[in-house]
Amino acid sequence: MNLEAQGDGADASESEVSPSGVGPGSTTIEQSHIVPIERSGSSAKRESKATGPRTQQGKQRASRNATKHGVFSKVVILDSESKTEYEELLAGLRETLQPEGALEELLVEKLGILAWRQRRLLLAESAEIRKNTEFVESDQRDQDHEAVRMFWNMPGFLGGRGLIGNTHNRHLIERCIEWLGDLRKGIEKAGFRRDEDAPILRMLYGDREIIRLRSDLYDCFETWLQIAETPEQERERKRYPSPSEARQIVMEKIDKEIRRLKRDQKARSSIQAARTQLEIVSRNVPDGPGLDRLLRYEASLERSFDRTLSQLERLQRMRLGQPVLPKLEVHHSLS
């Protein structure tokens, strides 16, 4: 009897402790009714909703949903630049560096801004080189035309020395060849004409009063003109060529002079082309104030990039519980 009473007491105590008033003897049946009670109501509704990303990679992607586009992109990108290319650069940096949190995101975007400015710097350097190289030939043409203009404004045709042998301007040499061709046509058609031929020869070879080291076409013309004007009896006595033969000799001399000028012009053009190419190569690196400005800007960008990357690495090590490397302080001395 006492044992049964103690057993009944134990059952009673168990029923008092049980939160549902169910004794341990019926746990198999009664606990099956507990489960739907706990999953009903607001708890069931919460579990029916999306719980968000569960994997670490999903959480990282979700953390960047609010920063799909750079917050500073409107300031960084110029009107002439591509926003799409900038966003692609920024997305590549995010994929590589995997930032988490607002501060790491800002540091990654700062790296993107610095890389974008570095790209802009390279484009500026390319433009500086193109500005110095692409217009070398145009500048030379302008100089040649300026020399021609100065020549026409110069009294006395280079002080009486004449053009041929005293200029390397290809435009003036071409004009000299044209004048010689006109001179030849005139002699062939109408013979010697002192009043019309002499001014052309004086412009090309200078005044006869000026001392020259060697004879030229003008001297040849004067000689054969005198022979052509020699009276016939004296010409026969001295066995001089006839006026028509004298004209033919002068025309051959003119042809020879034209060929010589064309050879010289070709040689000078070849030298000028080589000099132009060397000038272009030498300008492939900008110099002067332009180079100094680009180098200073490049050094500033590199320092900022290194500092920002170092800050990001320190933050990520701290977040991952890894040892943080001490800051590397670099001091520049002017001495």
Structural features, described:
With 335 residues, this protein is mostly helical. It has two domains: 68-133 and 288-320; 145-282, no CATH class. The chain has 16 helices and no strands. α7 crosses α8, α8 packs antiparallel against α16 and α11 packs antiparallel against α15 (243-282). The longest helix has 40 residues, at 243-282. The protein is rod-shaped, with a radius of gyration of 49 Å. It starts with a helix and ends in a 15-residue tail after the last helix. The model is unreliable at 1-50 and 62-68 (pLDDT under 50).
Produce the secondary structure layout.
Layout: H1 2-17, H2 27-30, H3 34-38, H4 42-48, H5 56-63, H6 73-76, H7 83-97, H8 101-133, H9 136-152, H10 156-159, H11 170-190, H12 194-205, H13 217-229, H14 232-237, H15 243-282, H16 288-320
Helix pairs in contact: 7-8, 8-16, 11-12, 11-15, 13-15
Keywords:
335 residues, single chain, disordered N terminus, mainly alpha
Number of spatially distinct domains: 2
Shape: rod-shaped
**Helical/strand content category:** mainly alpha
Task: Return Rg in Å.
Answer: 49 Å
Compute the average pLDDT.
75
Number of helices: 16
Helix % is over 70%
Can you tell me the residue ranges where pLDDT is under 50 for at least 5 consecutive residues? 1-50, 62-68
**In whole angstroms, how far apart are the ends?**
107 Å
Largest sheet: none
N-to-C order of helices and strands? HHHHHHHHHHHHHHHH
